Amino acid sequence: AQKITQTQPGMFVQEKEAVTLDCTYDTSDQSYGLFWYKQPSSGEMIFLIYQGSYDEQNATEGRYSLNFQKARKSANLVISASQLGDSAMYFCAMREYTGGFKTIFGAGTRLFVKA
Amino acid sequence: GAVVSQHPSWVICKSGTSVKIECRSLDFQATTMFWYRQFPKQSLMLMATSNEGSKATYEQGVEKDKFLINHASLTLSTLTVTSAHPEDSSFYICSAMDSNQPQHFGDGTRLSIL
Question: Nearest-CA distance from B47 to chain A in Å?
Fold first, then answer.
């Protein structure tokens, strides 16, 4: 069963505008972690932001913020003031703490930033 | 920040040869390392999880005799693709973590089998 769902295969955003990338997840664990990674065309995976299931406040890292809605099991990534260099593939991931810290990834969303 | 080094970044070899990929955590001790495979325009597929000093745990459908994983120290894990064939061509990425920290990824290895 799909545990991480990213419903937007591709997104366009105008430079300097904000964009939200959607992510929903499914787990029966009470303790888990949610991550967002960026993968540019060169292939490396770049860690962006982390949200723990017990964290009451939404995580923020610079221009990245995670809109965590636990009851809805969603963990959307918000990128503010988009830059051309933000064009990349973005993956939402979840780590469940039962079964050994395994992290699974969503299908990804390709973001295109227009000048 | 934490750095994971993966080597080589690109391999082209003949069918039937074995290929070894190294993954090193440079500035932290990685209690757990992960190996992923990524096909073009697809997500990362977890192949196996390895803890230092113990046998790797393979995901369903991944042939452990085909993809040998060794995690001999807290800073080094290797993936050996044995008797590689064209269908093994892919992008392989390792990641490492220490306890409950975000995983840090290597830059990946593009493997092409001719």
Answer: 11
